[in-house]
Specification:
Largest sheet: 4 strands, antiparallel
Shape: globular
Bound molecules: iron/sulfur cluster
Strand content: 15-25%
Number of domains: 1
Strand order of the largest sheet: 1-2-4-3
């Protein structure tokens, strides 16, 4: 387990920790947040609702694992209106998730969830009614599977917010 934490940090995570699956807080309410579409990705990303399926079976999948490798990236922004910086940080986080996924250290049976909206492509093919360009690589979001990231980080060394003019993204590998 320590090897996975070390690998996540070596690959670019600011911090990583292993938590028991019972510490992963789940709530079906997150589907309503997705449906409100404040991020603009609902129905416009193959890795977001409604394409990923009903939330209850997805939460059941999360419950089927014993541990979670929870990791985060913390990126500097010019200011709190730095939307471009937030997008770049999200894309960088998605690339970290790919490095962890392809590290060769994860067991075959795992569930890797990352920050919302996939972000492997600048514009998801779903928005243009086209098939996913990288179906082997695309990862769904923690919130899409009902994970309450804020409450899941409580009691861990990973802070949900890391100071002014920063943006923090999370990922988790259920093991
Ligand atoms: S890989 Fe590209 S096309 Fe596929 S879900 Fe991610 S952003 Fe969309």
């Amino acid at each position: 387990m320590q090897a996975l934490i070390d690998a996540a940090v070596r690959l670019g995570a600011a911090k990583a920790v292993i938590i028991p699956a019972e510490q992963v807080v789940l709530s079906a309410e997150f589907r309503k947040i997705c449906e409100s579409n404040s991020c603009g990705r609902y129905g416009r990303c193959w890795m977001c609702p409604p394409e990923i399926g009903d939330i209850e079976p997805l939460m059941e999948q999360v419950r089927g694992y014993r541990y979670g490798l929870l990791y985060q990236t913390i990126s500097e922004l010019e200011d709190s209106f730095d939307i471009e910086g937030m997008f770049e940080a999200g894309a960088a986080h998605a690339q970290l998730s790919q490095r962890i996924e392809k590290s060769g250290l994860l067991p075959q049976d795992h569930l890797h969830l990352t920050c919302g909206g996939c972000r492997l492509c600048e514009r998801c093919a779903k928005a243009d009614g086209e098939p996913c360009r990288y179906p082997q690589d695309a990862l769904p979001s923690m919130e899409g599977y009902g994970i309450d990231v804020y409450n899941t980080t409580k009691g861990t060394p990973l802070k949900y917010i890391n100071g002014s003019n920063t943006v923090t993204y999370f990922g988790i590998v259920m093991l």
